[in-house]
Amino acid sequence: MDETVAEYIRRTVLKIPRDEIKTMLQKWGFLSEAQLETVNFHQIKDNISQDVVQLCEENSADIKQAAVLDIIYNNIYPNKRIWSVYQMNKTGEETDFFDLTDFKKKFKRRLRSALKNVTINFREYEDNAIWIRIAWGTPYRKPNQYKTSYVVYHSQTPYVFISVSVLRSNLPLLCQALVVASNYHDIREMELRSHSLNSLKDIVFKRYSQNFQTYCPRPLPERNVAPETVDLRIVQENRNEKERIQRLNREVFGDGPQPKIEFAQYKLETMFKSDPKMDVLDKKEPFRCLIKFSSPHLLESLKSLAPAGMADAPLSPLLTCIPQKARNYFKIREKKGLLPGSFVSP
Amino acid sequence: GVFAHLELLEARAYEAAVKQEEAEQQEEKLARLKARVQELRLQRDELRAKVDLQQKGQLGKEGAVSNPAQPSARAVLEWKIKSLKAMLQIFYLTGISGKLSKRGVCFCISTAYEGTYLDSFHLDLLTKPEVQIYRHSVPIFIPLQQIARKYLQTDIRRFLSVLSDHLNAYVGRRYQADQLQEHFSGQIEGTLQRNSLCNLLVFSYNVSSESKTFPFKVRLLYGDPCCSLPTEVVISCT
C-alpha cells in the first residue's frame, strides 16, 4: 500500500471522534467485521488509527477507498466546512431524465480533459444527494489529497452546493464540468453561504417550516392549554402587546426551527443622510459601510429579538427576508428616483 | 257652521293621533327598558356565578346543572367542532382544498397512490394585483414555475389540476420505487439507480434457470411527468 495512502487514512481516522470510529468504519465497509473486532476502540486515537492502517495494509487499500472514507466523514460532519450555493440555468423546458451513470461519465470526462491530475469520487445517498469529492493536482503534480473540494448535487434541481477549500482557481473548471454533466447552460454563485449544509438545502429547497393557513390533517403539536391556576388579582399589563409580537413573529418566522446560518452581511453604498444645515460631508459620496451580523444561529436569535424586548416588532424586512430571498450577503444601494430610500440589489 | 264643525273634528283627530303616538313611544321605551333590565339581571347572575365558582376555587369546571333532555352549550359546541373537522377532512380527501387568507388563497394539494394517502403540498397565492405564488412547499424539481407561467393567470382551475397531476404522479412513482426497494431488496443486484423525480429507474436482477443464472438489466423511463407508469422499458440480458 502506498505510504501517502496509509498516512491519509491515518489522518482521516484521527479526525473522527473516538466513539464514532467503529460505526464509520462499518459504513465504509472496506474492513470486514472480523477485522474490526480485532481493534480495541477504547485505546487512544493514535493507536486506533495505527491499527486501522495496519488492517488497510492487509487489504491493500488504494486512494479510491481512502477517498470514500473521507466522503463518509464529510457527509456525517458537513458543518466543518463552509458551503456556498450555486444556481444553474437552462432555457429548455423539456423533462430532465437524469441518468446518474451518464452524469458521472460526463463530469469525469470534462474535468479530466482539462486537468489530468485529479482524483474524482462519487457517492450517492438515500435522499438523492450525489456527493462528489475532487482532489486537485496540477499538470505536473499528482493530486493533493488534502486539498479537496466537495460538491453536493440533488438531481433535477438547479442548485449545487460547493465547498471549495483552498484552491479557488479550480472553481471555474469545476463549475463547467457540473454544467455539462447536468445538461444545464450556465451557473452562477448565489449570495448564500453557511457552515450548515442542511440549512442551505432547507433554504433553497424551501423545506423550512412555513406557516400555511390550511387544515392540517396531522394533529398540530398541542400547545399548553391547561388553565392557569394563577391568582386573578395579578393582571398582565402588556398582554395585548405581547400577543401582537408573538403573532407577528409567527407570521414572519413560522412555527418550526429556523435554517441555521452563522452570519448576514450588508454592504451599504448609500448616501449619508444628515441635516443639510450641518453639512457633515462636503463631498456627496456614498457612505461605504459593512455591517455583519454573526451568531451561532442567526435566524433563531433574530426570531427571539422582539419577544425578548430588544427590538420592535415587526423586524426590518432586510433581516427577515433571508430565507425567502435565499441570500445572506446583501448590497444596499441608493434608490434611484423621486423617493429617497434604499433598495436591495438583486 | 259646517266648516267650523269639520275644523273641530280635524283638530280632535290630530290631538288623538298625537296622544296615540306619545303612548306608543312610551310603550316602546318601556319595552326597551324592560329588556335592558333583563340583560342586566342576566349579567348579574353570570357574575354572581363566577364569583361563586372562584370562591369555591373551581376555575374552569362546569358548575351549571344542565337539563339532560336539552343539549348543553358545551355539547353543541363540541358537535359543531366535530362536524367542521369532518368537513375539512372531506375537503382534504378530495385532493385539492383551499382557504381564503388575508391577501389571497391558500391551497393544499394532497396526494395518494392506489389508496395510500401520501404527502400534502401547500401553495399560498396572492390575488392582488394579479394572481401570483407567494410561497409554497412544492419540491424544487417539480416544474412549478413552468406550469404557473402557462395557466396561473388565465385558468386557475387548470393550473391546480395540472399541478396536482404532476405531484400525484411524482409521489406515485416515488412510492413504487420505495416499495420496490423495500420488498425486492433480495432480488435486486446492487443498488436501484433513481433520481429526484423518480422518472428513470435502472436496476439489475438475476434469473436462475436450471443451473445457470442470467443477469438482467432493466431501464424504466417515465416519459410523462403526469403519469406514474413507465413509457419506455428496456430489458437487456448481459
From TrEMBL, chain A:
Cellular component, GO annotation: chromosome, centromeric region; nucleoplasm
Compartments in which it is found: Chromosome, Centromere; Nucleus
Its BP terms in the Gene Ontology are: CENP-A containing chromatin assembly; chromosome segregation
Query: What Pfam family does this protein match (any one)?
Result: CENP-N
List, alphabetically, the InterPro entries matched: CENP-NAC/CAD_complex (IPR052011), Chl4/mis15/CENP-N (IPR007902)
Keywords for this protein:
Centromere, Chromosome, Nucleus
This protein's major location comes to nucleus
What does the sequence similarity comment in the record state about its family? Answer: Belongs to the CENP-N/CHL4 family.
* PANTHER family tied to this protein: CENTROMERE PROTEIN N
- Protein name (database record): CENPN protein
UniProtKB/TrEMBL annotation, chain B:
Q: Which InterPro entries match?
A: CENP-O
Which keywords, in A-to-Z order, does the entry hold?
A: Centromere, Chromosome, Coiled coil, Nucleus
Q: What CDD domains is this protein classified in? A: DRWD-C_CENP-O, DRWD-N_CENP-O
Coiled-coil segments, which residues? 6-57
Asked if Secreted is a keyword of the record, the answer is no
Q: Where in the cell is it found?
A: Chromosome, Centromere; Nucleus
Q: Which GO terms describe its cellular component?
A: Mis6-Sim4 complex; nucleus
Major subcellular site: nucleus
UniProt family annotation: Belongs to the CENP-O/MCM21 family.
The record's annotation in PANTHER family points to:
CENTROMERE PROTEIN O, INNER KINETOCHORE SUBUNIT MAL2
Q: What is this protein called?
A: Centromere protein O
Q: Tell me the organism.
A: Cepphus grylle
